[in-house]
Design goal:
Elements (H helix, E strand, L loop, with lengths): L1 H4 L4 E2 L1 H23 L6 E6 L6 E4 L5 E3 L1 H6 L7 E6 L2 H10 L6 E5 L2 H9 L9 E7 L8 H10 L2 E7 L1 H7 L10 H11 L4 H5 E5 L5 E5 L2 H14 L5 E2 L3 E4 L5 E9 L2 H16 L4
Parallel strand pairs: 1-3, 2-5, 2-7, 5-6, 7-8
Antiparallel strand pairs: 3-4, 8-13, 9-10, 11-13, 12-13
Helix pairs in contact: 2-11
């Protein structure tokens, strides 16, 4: 009933690839966590932009399981699942789909507040809890304090959508004077400060000796953010970001992975490389 009542997102091939990647790593992660015995760990799955549970494939026209339902199918299972969406209809859909699962909590609201105030305390290192977070915003809706807190916790691994298309459309213009204040503020909230300007632009001298700014390539901006996650966010290992493209081959976003464990980075690097070698990306 819910699938007919809710307007589901239509997703392209690159989004289905992302779902496959997260599902594959979640299975490996859960297997490792569940096998830990000394001490026994309590591992948690968190999806901060969870959606309604299903999407519609632009490739096939059929329904595709969203990341929350993929996580619920992982064996061995996570001990807890926390799903967040700002949209009431999507949150209600998830509640209906998971009403038989006592290990699921669905939240409706701003993930920035919910992650910091409600979920982060359930992922404490000292309580032998570990967590895998999926932070997959459509645009610049995530705030840096969430990422910083996750890195400082030492107990959290995460996949992050680095939304370079939203940045390019609304913030990273050649003429910064034409960018609206609200869009610059969104970028600074995501980055944590305005140091994104140094990452996104280089200054060059013209033939007349004037200084002019030139926008850096997308991958350079993504690399700068990955360095920021390590240097300022507290994550020790960050994988080479994976470009996710649309049907016109333009990069829509980069999939970023951050962790405290070298083995986690290696597993994700191998998964990313499998898609790179296959020519899918």
């Amino acid at each position: 009933m819910r699938k007919q009542a809710l307007k589901f997102d239509r997703i392209g091939y690159w989004s289905e690839v992302k779902l496959d990647i997260v599902r594959e790593y979640a299975a490996a992660y859960s297997t490792i966590m569940a096998a830990q015995r000394a001490p026994q760990l309590h591992h948690v799955y968190v999806d901060a932009f969870a959606g309604g549970g299903y999407s519609i494939s632009r490739t096939t026209g059929g329904f595709v399981l969203g990341s929350p339902l993929n996580a619920l199918n992982v064996k061995p299972p996570f001990r807890e699942h926390h799903f967040i969406d700002l949209d009431r209809a999507k949150a209600d859909s998830l509640r209906e789909l998971t009403e038989h699962r006592p290990d699921v909590t669905v939240y409706e609201g701003d993930c920035n507040a919910i992650l910091l105030e409600t979920i982060l305390p359930r992922c404490r290192w000292a309580d032998y809890r570990r967590a895998l977070w999926l932070l997959d915003p459509y645009g610049l809706h995530l705030h840096w304090p969430v990422l910083h807190a996750a890195g400082q916790a030492r107990s959290i691994e995460l996949f992050l959508n680095f939304p370079v298309m939203d940045m390019n459309r609304n913030v990273l213009w050649s003429d910064q004077s034409r960018v609206g204040r609200s869009d610059r503020d969104r970028m600074s909230a995501f980055w944590g400060d305005d140091s994104w300007r140094q990452a996104a632009y280089t200054s060059n001298k013209t033939l007349f000796g004037d200084e002019e700014e030139e926008k850096a390539e997308n991958i350079a901006v993504a690399h700068a953010f990955c360095d920021h996650l390590k240097r300022d966010g507290g994550f020790e290992y960050v994988a080479e970001p994976l470009p996710m493209r649309n049907s016109a081959r333009a990069v829509v976003y980069y999939l970023v992975f951050a962790s405290q464990k070298p083995v986690a980075k290696k597993i994700v690097r191998d998964i990313f490389d499998k898609y790179r070698r296959g020519g899918a990306i």
